[in-house]
Specification:
Length: 147
């Protein structure tokens, strides 16, 4: 063997000796990973099971939401004609109340005794919200609506 071959062999030996600590450390880490492999497999199985449970819960929630939506749509469909009827009745009642108020005002001066001035006419109806009457409360209760 020549000197060059001996030098190359020595360099290769030095490189192999330098890599030896890294190989020992790598082997230890691989051994630790293999030991923890069982725990990782258990963790993976638990994660899969949780995913399946979440999918099932999502499907149940979607079914409940669909059922509630259909029920609400049915109730709204039933309530719309009643709302229209109530609006019509309210408009008619307001018109009749205004007409009756006008008739009462017109009849007041006729009903006043002679020599006494007619009592002042009551102030026009305020548009502020008033508490509902017993009839309104009964109607709202019958319709299932609460204030």
């Amino acid at each position: 063997m020549t000197g060059l071959e001996w030098a190359l062999q020595a360099a290769l030996l030095c490189l192999l000796l330098g890599a030896l600590p890294f190989l020992v450390r790598l082997e230890r880490q691989l051994r630790a990973l293999r030991a923890e492999g069982g725990a990782m497999a258990e963790g993976e199985a638990a994660l899969r099971q949780a995913g399946v449970a979440a999918d099932a819960a999502t499907a149940r929630l979607r079914a409940v939401a669909d059922g509630a939506g259909r029920g609400l749509a049915e109730r709204v469909a039933k309530a719309e004609p009643l709302r229209d009827d109530l609006r019509f009745l309210t408009e008619r009642a307001e018109a009749l109340a205004d007409r009756l108020d006008g008739l009462v005002r017109a009849a007041r001066p006729l009903a006043a005794p002679p020599g006494r001035p007619a009592p002042p006419a009551p102030a026009p109806r305020a548009t502020a919200e008033r508490p509902p009457s017993q009839a309104e409360r009964d109607l709202l209760r019958a319709l299932g609506i609460s204030r």
